[in-house]
Amino acid sequence: MPTVAKDNSVCAQIDIFPVEPEQQQSLVDSLVDYVETVLKQQPGAD
C-alpha cells in the first residue's frame, strides 16, 4: 500500500458523503462497484 506524502507521486482524494444512516450500505456498495468496474480499468490502476 502506498504512503501518502507530499513528496511522492501518489494522489489522494478524500470525499465526504452526507447520507442517512439507513443509506450508508447502499452508498458503500455503489462506491465499491464504481471502483471495481471503472477505476480498476484505468491505465496505471495496477
Count of helical regions: 1
Q: What percent of residues adopt helix (DSSP H or I)?
A: 25-40%
Query: Quick one: biggest sheet?
Result: none
Alpha-beta classification: mainly alpha
Residue-averaged pLDDT: 84
Strand content: under 5%
Question: In sequence order, what are the helices and strands, one letter per element?
Answer: H
Number of strands: 0
> What ranges have pLDDT less than 50 throughout 5 or more consecutive residues?
none
Global Rg: 14 Å
N→C terminal distance: 12 Å
Which of globular, elongated, flat, extended, rod-shaped describes the shape?
Answer: flat
Q: What is the structure about, briefly put?
A:
By secondary structure, this protein is an all-alpha fold.
How would you portray this structure in words?
With 46 residues, the chain is mostly helical. It has one helix at residues 24-37. The mean pLDDT is 84.
Write the layout of secondary structure elements.
Blueprint: H1 24-37
Entry keywords:
46 residues; mainly alpha; 1 helix; 0% strand
